[in-house]
Amino acid sequence: MVATAGTPRARALSAALRDARETRGVGLRVLARQLEISHTQISHWETGHRVPGVEVVAMILAALRVPPGERERILDLARNLGEPSWLTVGISGIPQQLAGAIECERAASAIVEWSPMVVPGLLQIREYSRAILEHVDLPAVDFDTRVLVRAGRGEVLLSNDPPNFEALISEAVVHEPVGSAQVMQAQLAHLVAMAARPNVTIRVVPLRVGWHPGWSGPFVVYDFPSAPAVVHFEHYSSGAFVPVEHDVKEYRTASQRIRDVALGEVDSLDYLTKALQEWEVRL
């Protein structure tokens, strides 16, 4: 079980167990007494330092009276922890994938993201996230929660011990309207502000520079202090976390090739500032 600790799927399981308990207002010690298990052990499971077995997960979910749909989703995470890679397919898999990404972001020491079409999730403002999710078939009850979760991801970059984040974005990202001109103006202003932070680097990749590995699709590389690096691929209704060393190495090489055709940090900031001014004119 120790071997699976630190993987995206294990991180998502920890977050799911913690959320299941906290949303029902059950204290850690209360649950521990109910299950006759050390509260320290449960804490280790919820923080990802240790990984519980399927039977233990089922026992926790039963004690918390988690409804069938949510229970099955969490048990599915527990059943397949031994698989090194993690593929989610279908809109119903997106919450698991997002949970995995958020836990990776919290644990990472460094993150490199290539985003050819939209602002990276860690840099999205709430209105921009809302404009994206308006085109996803979501139940009304889940919409606001998903917006808050997506927009809240960026808080990790403002924490006391933030990861180093490098965003490589296509110039198309800053010109393609996602939401209104007001939303785009606010989003570009946020990018300019975040680019000034010491732990954030934003580099713009111009169009018409010829083919480079980034045109094969978006990707994120997570580095962790005490776990293997992971590559994350996120698409409209599917996604995958891949910790295979060969693949990680290939995407590190791809990142460098994208940097080779990107504007420098100063020129990128100048580009973002000019794009912001263009959106302000449209207001």
From TrEMBL:
CDD domains with a match to the protein in the record: HTH_XRE (cd00093)
HTH cro/C1-type domain boundaries: 17-71
Pfam families referenced in this protein's UniProt entry, alphabetically: DUF5753 (PF19054), HTH_31 (PF13560)
Signal sequence residues: none
Protein name (record): Scr1 family TA system antitoxin-like transcriptional regulator
